[in-house]
Amino acid sequence: MRQSDLFTKTRKEAPKDEVSKNAILLTRAGFINKEMAGVYSYLPLGLKVLKKIENIIREEMNALGGKELVLTSLQRKDVWEKVGRWDDKNVDVWFKTKLKDNVELGLGFTHDEQIVNLLTEYVSSYKDLPLYLYQIQTKFRNELRVKSGIMRGREFVMKDLYSFTRTEEEQDEFYEKAKKSYMKVFSRCGIGDITFCTFASGGTFSKYSHEFQTLSLAGEDIIYVDEKKNLAINKDVFDEEGLVTAGLKRDDLVERKSIEVGNIFKQGTKYTDPFNLYYQDENGKKQSILMGGYGIGVTRLMGTVVEVLSDDKGIIWPEEISPFQVHLVSLGNDENVIKLADEIYKTFQKEGIEVLYDDRNVRAGEKFADSDLIGISTRLVIGDKALESKKLEVKDRSSGQTTETDLKSFIKKFKK
RNA sequence: CGGGGCGUAGUAUAGUGGUAGUAUACAUGCUUUGGGAGCAUGAGGUUCGAGUUCGAUUCUCGGCGCCCCGACCA
Predict the structure, then answer these.
(1) Aminoacyl-transfer RNA synthetases class-II family profile domain spans which residues (predicted)?
(2) CA–CA gap between residue A30 and residue A46 (Å, rounded)
(3) φ/ψ bin of A375: left (φ > 0), alpha (ψ from -120 to 50), beta (otherwise)
(4) Which range of residues forms the domain containing residue A406?
(5) Residue A278 Cβ under 7 A from any strand B atom
(6) What is the pTM of this model?
(7) Could you tell me the distance in Å between the CA of residue A14 and the C1' of nucleotide B30?
């Protein structure tokens, strides 16, 4: 895409109503736009990144055996009343609304009840299980106070997978596989080395769960990290019992601040039993179904990447989720330079390399500043130098290193 | 939900009880072109309502909105 056609523009000034690094940088670079407190639109650049993250998650969830679906945001009151979560006393993040005839509805903040309710129509035999269903969808939570840009809003994108299994062994096996998938997702998003599978409290469903915590001073969680084992334990369960269960030793741990980017937990029959979701085994005997929930805050993950990967000039996208693979930047308005850049642009399009082509007639300084801010992982500069040397000047956004190469090997490296 | 703060142009900011200023962004022209260039010209603004006043962007009250701290956060 030509940058002259890009819908958004960069800004020099930080918006006055943002404090968090992710919101400031994403807004300045034209990825998002705040509509109201805790509610952000995703502009073309932001959407590109969001979709890339979603696709990584989709690939990993599919590899786990997950089947994708999309449940509704509008949800029935009676479904939520089954386990008492409609009442504002029990759940205080509801957005509730009404139909014209005064029938009450809620905007989904999660979909546990709804998916179980759905499955009562489809699951009845041991042959139907195990079953792993997931969706990537917008959730609504009426937070009392929003903060941290896109990391804690009232409307956000979440991936939620639900597992339905017959036995504890089946459940545990999947749970362990899911842990690995999750780490893969975070690695592919460029934050694998600072994200830890973290032993955490289980809340109302089971005693313990696992969170995926990314080290960052912008985080709100405190965890204790065992860097050798690559594991951590949340402060909430940082006691003797927790340590023993997690298999961690107090002396091996260091305290860190972190952002929760994912959470997996076993839910037992908390939802399946009340909804009468059972299956019949080989002997025709009625059996309970074990459920598990596996969440990733997709937009929060995007915000986390920005928090963690940036410098004073802008964002530093990891290759896999960079809005474009290459930022092609032409310098000056020398005819031959423009001709060369145009040719390279066309070649990339033909070869299927995703490219943002800064074809604007503005000075080099402005182009470089914008390029740094937007943060595309690889920059290709075409100016007089390239014309003379017949070499391509490639700058890596992350390391800042510039290398020379020729078009052929560049294409070979980036062609998908 | 408790406490505190703030609403002036697209953005960021001055200032004032009596015609609202700067930067940036935008438009036009000329110059310039490897790290946010220069000159000229132009267009663009006081969150809403009520009150006080001859007169309110400014003072008072209320609404709405936004931000921060805390609480909360399957």
Answers:
(1) 5-318
(2) 8
(3) left
(4) 324-414
(5) no
(6) 0.97
(7) 32
